[in-house]
Design brief:
This protein starts with 6 loop residues before the first strand and ends with a helix. The strands form 2 sheets. A 7-stranded mixed sheet has the order 3-2-1-4-5-10-11, sandwiched between helices. It has 11 helices and 11 strands. The protein has 2 domains: 183 residues, Rossmann fold (3-Layer(aba) Sandwich); 116 residues, Rossmann fold, CATH 3.40.50. Helix 2 crosses helix 3 and helix 7 packs across helix 8. The longest helix has 22 residues. Strand 1, helix 1 and strand 2 form a beta-alpha-beta unit. It is elongated and about 70 Å long. The protein is α/β, with parallel strands linked by helices. Bound molecules: 6-O-phosphono-beta-D-fructofuranose. 6-O-phosphono-beta-D-fructofuranose binds next to loops. The site of 6-O-phosphono-beta-D-fructofuranose (F6P) has 10 residues, from loops.
């Protein structure tokens, strides 16, 4: 180990993700193992600004590995975007003798962390937690697997009623500007089409495709719509398609925040445990402003600036696979 740190702060910020609690558990227990004191900061950067801190011992994180949400609570802080807000936050950290931070969150969280590190020279290590899976530097983010499982379970149920009524369903899933949840949900649920931010789809194409589907006497199908696609919401797309193709009885479901809740999958629990553990080790090795991730099953450190700014590409071969398997 290259550095001795006696006290760290840990917080969750931005949209919650299933597995955040499992990761907090790993951070606290790994730190305790190394005799490092841990302070839990409530409500992300908001709690840092308000000095909402509590000490965390290894038993404080018992019985949480299986729980969704985050027991430290989370927020998207507007005040932390200001210099004054960040100065207030740093004052509280100094007062509590916190020497380094572990930040659990996504793009917005790490953008804040990068600025904060530059301003106050405080070591910060990030743990990628977002259902969107849109962070460069890790194959998967914590929460993505659970969110996809939740979406697939919902789509399976929608399929039952769609089949019974011979309906064409447009199902909208989350993902902000990325189509990872939509593409994986489409493949895993055997959907007819998927509309993504990363690939252009036109209403003409959809109408042509579903006219051919209707001709083949298949009156049930599922279209998975990623919320960040440029064509519009599932509702808007469904209306446009229905207007030009009235043979289908069309319905729309928006899965929404259901995808953010629930007990994390085993995959997310293991990932969260590995990354929480690695975040503490990274700090002890002297790393200052990086995100820990998993690349090809190996732990990898990525500077915040790349994790935030580099584009993580969707696997285009999976789009082709989804199209071919939907024939
Ligand atoms: O980043 C996670 C996410 O769930 C996105 O998929 C979605 O666009 C957004 O957060 C919703 O944010 P909020 O919970 O603030 O409505």
């Amino acid at each position: 180990m290259k550095t001795t740190i006696k006290k760290i702060g840990v917080f969750t910020s931005g949209g919650d993700a299933p597995g955040m609690n499992a990761s907090l558990r790993a951070v606290v227990r790994t730190a305790c193992f190394h005799n490092i004191e841990v302070v839990g900061i409530k409500c992300g950067y908001e709690g840092m600004i308000n000095g909402d801190f509590r000490p965390l011992e290894k038993r404080d994180v018992g019985n949480i590995i299986q729980r969704g949400g985050t027991f430290l609570k989370t927020a998207r802080s507007k005040e932390f975007m200001t210099e004054k807000g960040r100065a207030k936050a740093f004052k509280h950290l100094k007062k509590h003798k916190i020497e380094a931070l572990i930040a659990l969150g996504g793009n917005g969280t790490f953008t804040g962390a990068e600025i904060f590190h530059k301003e106050f020279d405080l070591p910060i290590v990030g743990v990628p937690c977002t259902i969107d899976n849109d962070l460069y530097g890790t194959d998967k983010t914590i929460g993505f697997d659970t969110a996809v499982n939740t979406a697939v379970e919902a789509v399976d149920k929608i399929r039952d009623t769609a089949e019974s009524h011979n309906r064409l369903f447009f199902v909208e899933v989350m993902g902000r500007h990325a189509g990872f949840i939509a593409l994986h949900t489409a493949i895993a649920s055997g959907a007819g089409s998927v509309i993504l931010p990363e690939k252009e789809t036109t209403i003409d194409e959809l109408v042509k495709h579903y006219a051919a589907v209707a001709k083949s006497k298949r009156m049930t199908s599922l279209v998975i719509v990623a919320e960040g696609n440029p064509l519009g919401s599932a509702d808007e797309i469904a209306k446009k398609v229905e207007k030009r193709l009235d043979v289908f009885d069309v319905r729309v479901t928006v899965i929404g925040h259901l995808q953010r809740g629930g007990s994390p999958s085993a995959y997310d629990r293991v990932l969260a445990s590995r990354l929480g553990f690695s975040a503490v080790n990274a700090l002890l090795e002297g790393h200052q402003d990086i995100m820990v991730g998993v690349d090809n099953d190996q732990i990898k450190y990525t500077p915040f600036k790349y994790a935030i700014n580099n584009q993580k590409d969707l696997n285009l071969r999976l789009i082709r696979l989804a199209e071919i398997l939907a024939i």
